[in-house]
Amino acid sequence: MYPPPEYRPGLPEQNDNISHNHPLKEFAVLLAGVMVFLLLAVWSLGLLVDWAAGVISPEMEAVIFSSMQFSGATVFDKKQDDPRRVELQRLVDALGRCNEVGYPLQVRMAQSNDANAFAFPGGRIIVLEGLLDKVCSENGLAFVLAHEMAHFKHRDHLRAMGRGLVFTSLSALLTGAGSDLTKLIAPALGMGQARYSQEREALADRQALETLNCFYGHVGGATEFFVAMQEEVGEQGRGIGRYFASHPEAVQRINALRSLTRASGFAVQAPAPLPTTLASASPQ
User: 196: closest CA among 225, 168, 156, 226?
Assistant: First the structure.
């Protein structure tokens, strides 16, 4: 018989009580998995929202959103005989010959120093008073109105609202509002939504340029509003914030419109002056 082997104490080759995975590696894998899941969920639900926006008829939209009020300005001007509103409505109706939206649009004005206009659910175009201070020609104003009309034509106003609800609800449902995980993944999801919104804005700009050329026979004044906004922002722009903004920077829109004008062979002529009614400061 051979002598028994000599016993030598030592650590076992495998200890199930000790994890060989690095905690940071596990966290990175978990975070990546959550982000991929959420991105796929937001992407899928976004497509569903786009489909629903195309299915909702103008009549159904009017019924659903007729009671919805705009609250972004100090006072909402509902006066039907406001000469500025009447003139804006006339211009929108006239532009409709070159940009058939598919249902009637109503122009409303709101008291605000901000220069902007919105495509509001229910077929309403909201024009903030400050916009009239940033345009100096009828063509420049017509481009902004045609841009909002394009949003109605492409159903962008419903897409944006639906996607916003999906993003907010999904984030709050899965991670809880204000949680640390939400703060980590929200920028990535927000960047994706911002890119989508900027693409829709660029598409509306293209449609507005074509409308302007159809209506006036040239595209003079198309960049007027963006030039004014660029002067206000300055050459520095929004910096890194542009990646999370819903609208492209003014300088990008100016360059895109000029490139499209050259590519399309559109003529550029002197724009018509702003109608006296709209050029005046306030209604009497």
Answer: 156
